[in-house]
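Feature request disguised as a bug report, sorry. It would help if multi-protein outputs had a clear separator. Right now it looks like this:
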Amino acid sequence: MGAATKVSVWRRLLSRLDAAADADATSPVPADRSVPAYRVCAVMIGVAFTLTGLYTGSELAMSLGLAVGIRAAILGSIVLTVMSVPAAMVGSRTRLSTYMIVTHVFGKGGAKFVNLILAIVLLGWYAVTAELFGRTFYLTAAIYFHADAPQWLYTIASSALVVATTVFGFRAINRLSLAAAPLLITLTIYVAYRAMAHQPLSALLAIPGTHVDFATGVSAVIGGWIVSVVLMPDITRYARSTLECGVISLVGNGVGAAGALILAMIPALAFGEIDPMKYMAVLGLVGVAFTTLVVSTWTINAINLYSTGLVSSAVLRRVSYGRLVIWTGVIGTVCALAGIADRLIDFLVLLGLVVPPIAAVYLTDFFVLRRQIYSDCAESGKNNVNGIAACLAGAAVGITMYYTHTSVTGVPTIESFISAGLVYWLAECARSPLHRDRAWRASSG
């Protein structure tokens, strides 16, 4: 094949990925395209049960012990649900994507700042999952075939597989994710049941934790699901009522998150292993576990990469979407090789402090300042400096309270969220006497 032909084929493949972007990304979802709540709930639960979720539950169990870990999972899921419900309502009422909501609130310039944060966060998730994905291949090869190839080789190979399928067959892999989720949920429940047969629940509850404090555990739980809270409008813009928003939030970010973590804690403590493949191997489930975890993680990380490219394209508009996917995949793989998953709890805690202010700003704008009609306001090309400043202030408050152990509520994420909303409200009130009218953004900076 000549060089010119190769270039032509490559361009066609990249254009195929460019065409996979959602046609409704910049317009309201028509009412006739709403979907039943149970279908959305099924997707949300499937998102909760992932390889990274299993590792997070294992890490929390080893660090906190089962009794404290369960309390952290429940409290964290309650906070997530409380944050998630209003975010879901914004999506249901506006029928707009998170990208469009953020653009209306922060202005086009400010939205680039927000999307840059989300792109970095999603890239971090891709890197964490890529490392754990490679580790799953490595452990299976070592257990089944006694292979001695280094783990980094499996990480590169599995990440290349994810990048390739995202570029060449994302629509198919996205559909496959719907089938993979029930398999992993069933496997997780079965493994937890077998683990309690191996060691009774009373004995597991008596196992103490090691070093992580309760506040860190709660912050890690919140950090693990906070991105889904911020991006709730992307899901609930297809919802049919406010009641459905509450149900989706409760089932997905509440019951689903807590359930996935608690079920993952049990076998980790029962067998003294953090890696799911290791304790599943003890139960004689290597083949089933490998197949289920590979299909599930493969599809989830393809979606992570797809989302990373989508958010990045809002910042780097001159770079084609297909090329962004490839480059972010390469960068994510490098981060995976650097061992980002070894600091999983620290990564999740940071997310739980930095990301909530984004939701706090657009929720304050919608519910407190009552700026709820987006259709009659042209998008501003200017930055909403108050929104950006509030995000930075909220993150600074949360990080300071976490590392100085001065949190009033005991959960620094709450202070991060409340501080950002309060700073934004005060700044907007001081900025203009017409703070209930969004039109000023089109003419003032």
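(second protein starts here, but nothing in the output says so)
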Amino acid sequence: MQSLNDRFDPRLPADTLGIVTLAEKQQRMIDDLAVIEDVQERLAVVVDRARTRPPLPAAERTEANRVKGCVSLAWVVGETRGGLCHFRFDADSPLVRGLLALLCDLYGEAAPADIVATEPALLEQLGLTRSLSPTRLNGLRSVRAKIRDFAAAATA
């Protein structure tokens, strides 16, 4: 039987998945995680997926890349290639690292204008926000703002 992680890798290029828009990519991510009925198990899968991702090099763990407003130490690095945004991340907390992976996978390989216009509805629709403390939610808003600001600057 194919595991959820084997079935869907949001880091694959959108055209590989037959996905055209960021909204469709987000819906696919929601559909794939929604098969896990228990919200805590969903969150565990999100955290587990992030464990396989490489850490940021020390040279990229700079104040400029740090997510301000996040209680944990967290960094997001954005770059554009071929007109699309790509994100790398790291955090000192496994939970925060998992949430960063989810958002960076959602917005990775997307056009800057789409990133600016698309809110991360998957967090609410999957019930993940109900399991987070107010400080974690504030940190997530800061991550979203950092990703949005990078994308907005890339469109300028």
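Even a blank line would do. Unrelated, but nice: The longest strand covers residues 74-81.
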